[in-house]
Design a protein that fits this description.
The structure holds 2 protein chains of 2 kinds. Chain A is built from 14 helices and no strands. By secondary structure, chain A is mainly alpha-helical. The longest helix of chain A has 40 residues. Chain A folds into 2 domains: 47 residues, no CATH class; 231 residues, MetI-like (MetI-like fold). The N terminus of chain A is likely disordered. Chain B is mainly α. Chain B has a single domain, classed as MetI-like fold (Orthogonal Bundle). Helix content of chain B is 80%, strand content 0%. Chain B has 14 helices and no strands. The model of chain B has no long low-confidence stretch (mean pLDDT 87). Classes of the chains: A mainly alpha, B mainly alpha. At the A-B interface, helix 1, helix 2, helix 4, helix 5 and helix 6 of A face helix 1, helix 2, helix 4, helix 5 and helix 6 of B. Chain A: Its main location: membrane. Chain A: It is found in: Cell membrane. Chain A: One of its GO terms (cellular component) is plasma membrane.
Amino acid sequence: MTTSASVINNPQASTKKRRKWKSFALYFILPSFILYTLFVIVPTVGSIYYSFTSWDGISPDVRFIGFANFVEIWNSPRVHNALKNTMIMTISLVLLENVVAILLALLVDKVRWLSKLFRSIFYFPTLLSGIVMGFVWAMLLNYNFGVINQMLNKIGLGALAVDWLGDPRYAMLAIVLSTVWKGAGYYMIIYLAGLQGIPQELNEAASIDGANGWQQFRHITFPLLAGSVTVCMVLAMIGALKIFDQIAVMTDGGPGFETETLTYLIYKVGFGELRQGFGTALAIVLFLIIMIITVIQVKFLQKREVEL
Amino acid sequence: MKLKTRELTVNILIFALTLLMAVLFFFPIFFNIMSAFKSNAEIMRDALSFPTTFYLESFKYLLTETNFPKAIQNSLILTLVSIVFQVLLIPMAGYAIQRKNARWTRFIFLYFLAGMMIPFQAYMIPLFKELKMLGLYGSLAGPIMIYVAGSVGFGSLLYSSFVKGIPMEIEEAAEIDGCSRVRIFWNIVFPLLGPVTASMVVLNGLGIWNDFLMPMLVLPSGEPKTMVVEIYRYIGEFSSRWDMIFAGTTMSVVPILIVFVFLQKYFVKGIATGATKG
C-alpha cells in the first residue's frame, strides 16, 4: 500500500520525485521564459543601450554619445513642458477618477433598484478602446456640430460653447474628462468590493447615535475604504502616466504642445522625428518614474498590512 | 409611518441621481451606435436627432469599398491566436513556479514580476528594430509573440497565487497512479483553474482587441492593420466622412458589448483579483 503521505515521508522517493519535478518545472516554464526574455527584457536592455547613442532608428551607424541625451532632457523646454503636462494630467486624473469612482460605488451600493444594471453601465466604458471612444468624444466636443455645444446653444448658454479641443485652455480639460468617463468604472468595481467588506452594523450603530450620512461616510466608510483608496490611487497614477490613445486621436499633443505628455513625446520623438536615441532616453525616464511609484506602493502597502 | 415615507423619498432621490449618472455614462456609447445609422448630412445637421431612416450605406461602403474587412480579420486572428497561446503557456509556468518553489523558480518569478513595471513605451523603439532583425516585421506572428510575452508577468502572478489554493493530494495520488506531469496538469489542475482562465481570456482578449500603439508600429505600412488602427487612419484620411467612421467604431464596440453581456462576471472577477493580488 502506498499513500501520498508515505511518498512525502520517504526521503528516497521524495528526492526522486524532486529530480523528476525539476525537469518538469523547467519544461513548463521555458516557453514563457524565452518569449518574455526575447520580447520584453532584451528590448528593455536595448533601450538602456540606445539611450546613450544618437541613433536615428534607420542608419546602421549607432554613435555612442555618453550622457548627452540625458543632459538634453534636463535642459530641454519641450521635455519640461511634457513633464508639466504629464503632472497636471496625472494629478487631475488620479483625484477625479477616484472621487467619481467612490461616488459611483456608493450609489450602486445604496440604490434599491436595478443596481446590477447600473454597475454594468458605469463599468462598460472601461472595456472600450481609447481610440474609438476618443473619436466619439472628439465628435461630442466638436466646435461646430458637437452635441455638447449644440445643447449649450439650445438651453441659451451659447456663450459657454467653446472650441474644446482647439483652444489651449480647454484641450487638457477635455482629455481629462473623457478619460475620467472611460476609467472611473474600473475603480468603482474595486471600491464596491471594499464597501461590501464593511460590516453593516457599524453604520447602523452610528445612525442610532445620530450620525448623519456625511458623518458616517467621513468617519466610518471612508477610513475603512483606505486600502482600496491606496490601490486605486496607484493604479490610476500608473494608468495616467501611460495615456496615449486619447491624446493621439483627440489632439495629437496640441494645440501647440498643450497636451503633449511624456508618453506622447517618446512616440513623437522616436517615430515622428526619427531621434530614437533621444526617444529611448525619455523612455528610461518614464520607466524610472513608474518603478519609483511601484516601489513606494509596495513599501506603503506592506506598512499598512503590518498596522492591520 | 413618517419614517417609512422619508426612507422612500431617500431611496427615490438616490435612484434618480444614479439614473442621471447612468444616462451620462451611457450617452456616448448610444450616440456612437445611433450615429452609425445616420447619413453624413444628418450628422452634420443635428448630431442629437434620431436617424430618420435605417441608413446602412456607411456599413456597406466600409465593408465593400475599403480594406476594413481585412482589418477585421487581422483583429480577430491577433486576438484569438494570442489568447490560445497565452492559455497554453502561462498557466503551466505559474503552476510550475508555485509547485516547484525552489530557489531558481523563486528567482524566475521575481524576474517575471519585474515585467509588470515596464511600460510598453519603455521598450517599443528597440522592439521595432528587433522584430526586423528576426524577420518578424510585417507578419502577424510578431505581435502575437509580443502579446504572449507581455502577459507573462501578470499571468504567472495570477496563476501561481491560485494554484497555491489547490490541495496537492490529488496530484500526488495521480502521480502514484503513473500519470505524467503534463497529464496531471492538463487533466486535473487546469480544469480547477477555469475561473482564473476565463478572467484572463476576457480581460487580455479585450486588451488585444483594443490595442493601438503596438499593431500600428509593428504591422507593415501600406497594408490594412487592425480595426482600431484603421479607424485611426480613416479619421485622418476621410475627415469628412463621419458616418463611415461611426460605422467602424460601432463594429469595434458591438462585439465587446455582446461578450460583456454574456461573460460579465468574469470581467468583474478579474478586476477584483487583479486589484488585491497585484
